[in-house]
UniProtKB/TrEMBL annotation:
<dbReference type="InterPro" id="IPR027417">
    <property type="entry name" value="P-loop_NTPase"/>
</dbReference>
<dbReference type="Pfam" id="PF01121">
    <property type="entry name" value="CoaE"/>
</dbReference>
<dbReference type="GO" id="GO:0005524">
    <property type="term" value="F:ATP binding"/>
</dbReference>
<keyword id="KW-0067">ATP-binding</keyword>
<dbReference type="InterPro" id="IPR001977">
    <property type="entry name" value="Depp_CoAkinase"/>
</dbReference>
<feature type="binding site">
    <location>
        <begin position="11"/>
        <end position="16"/>
    </location>
    <ligand>
        <name>ATP</name>
    </ligand>
</feature>
<keyword id="KW-0418">Kinase</keyword>
<keyword id="KW-0547">Nucleotide-binding</keyword>
<keyword id="KW-0808">Transferase</keyword>
<dbReference type="GO" id="GO:0005737">
    <property type="term" value="C:cytoplasm"/>
</dbReference>
<comment type="pathway">
    <text>Cofactor biosynthesis; coenzyme A biosynthesis; CoA from (R)-pantothenate: step 5/5.</text>
</comment>
<keyword id="KW-0173">Coenzyme A biosynthesis</keyword>
<protein>
    <recommendedName>
        <fullName>Dephospho-CoA kinase</fullName>
        <ecNumber>2.7.1.24</ecNumber>
    </recommendedName>
</protein>
<comment type="similarity">
    <text>Belongs to the CoaE family.</text>
</comment>
<comment type="function">
    <text>Catalyzes the phosphorylation of the 3'-hydroxyl group of dephosphocoenzyme A to form coenzyme A.</text>
</comment>
<dbReference type="GO" id="GO:0015937">
    <property type="term" value="P:coenzyme A biosynthetic process"/>
</dbReference>
<dbReference type="GO" id="GO:0004140">
    <property type="term" value="F:dephospho-CoA kinase activity"/>
</dbReference>
């Protein structure tokens, strides 16, 4: 099995590239989704987050409102660090379990884990190959505003908490440039998939 980390800054096209790789036959796991599951009522990180940040992060049904929690943590590096310490252990454990089960079911597969901050956390070391998606800063901002309805300031606060893409390039085995049309991204993904297949062990 080949373990592939797929990372990139906010709204650079990780999810789009991950889905395209899955369409071509890769197995795919989203760490952002695991992070969301880790904050559901009943999960340990839910209680830790409510204790640390207070009832103001909850919606009317007692669930964590991620937009409210985002507003608290993305403006304050120490709070984000604390939230990371609640969420990341559960995410890493779930990723490792998933990779074990994929290895058992399909030992020749390409297992792709899509995660926003693989490099920042050092998690990139757990993968055989690292793929990075990039586009311009202005495109990141415009795409995040359009997709998530965030304000420009909310997007800038998130971007400030991420390593600049130029620095991330140093860690990447493959760079997918998503600054053009989606067809151009798909063509690059096709070439990437051919290459990854040739590396499968
Ligand atoms: C703060 C939370 C609740 C906001 O949720 P929301 O649904 O609004 O955003 P979502 O999770 O989809 O993240 C969107 C993007 O924000 C950026 N982002 C998210 N978490 C982080 C972080 N810890 N550091 C830097 N950027 C981050 C990434 O580019 C990510 O793709 C959520 O992002 C969170 O719990 N973050 C901390 C845990 C984490 O690191 N999750 C991401 C990978 S496991
Ligand atoms: N050429 C392109 N390649 C990929 N995505 C594009 C392209 N042009 C526009 N987009 C759009 O950019 C937006 C961001 O892409 P996507 O959601 O895949 O990013 P992401 O890196 O997963 O974001 P996040 O880190 O916030 O989860 C999407 O709405 C996507 O449709």
């Amino acid at each position: 099995m080949l373990r592939v980390g797929l990372t990139g800054g906010l709204a650079t096209g990780k999810t789009f590239v991950g889905r395209a790789l899955a369409d071509l036959g890769c197995r795919l796991l989203s760490a952002d989704e695991l992070g969301h599951q880790a904050l559901l009522p009943g999960a340990p990180a839910y209680l830790q987050a409510v204790e640390a940040f207070g009832g103001g992060i909850l919606d009317a049904h007692g669930r964590i409102d991620r937009r409210k929690l985002g507003a608290v943590v993305f403006g304050d590096p120490e709070k984000l660090e604390l939230l990371n310490s609640f969420v990341h252990p559960a995410v890493i454990a779930a990723e490792e379990q998933w990779m074990k089960s994929v290895q058992a079911e399909d030992p020749l597969s390409i297992a792709v884990v899509e995660a926003a901050i693989l490099i920042e956390t050092g998690s990139y070391r757990r993968f055989d190959k690292l793929v990075l998606t990039v586009c311009t800063d202005e495109q990141q901002i415009a795409r995040a505003i359009k997709r998530d309805g965030l304000t420009r300031q909310e997007v800038l606060d998130r971007l400030k908490r991420q390593m600049p893409l130029e620095e991330k390039r140093r860690y990447a085995d493959y760079v997918i440039d998503t600054s053009g049309e989606k067809d151009g991204t798909l063509a690059q993904v096709g070439r990437l998939y051919t290459d990854l297949r040739s590396l499968r062990v």
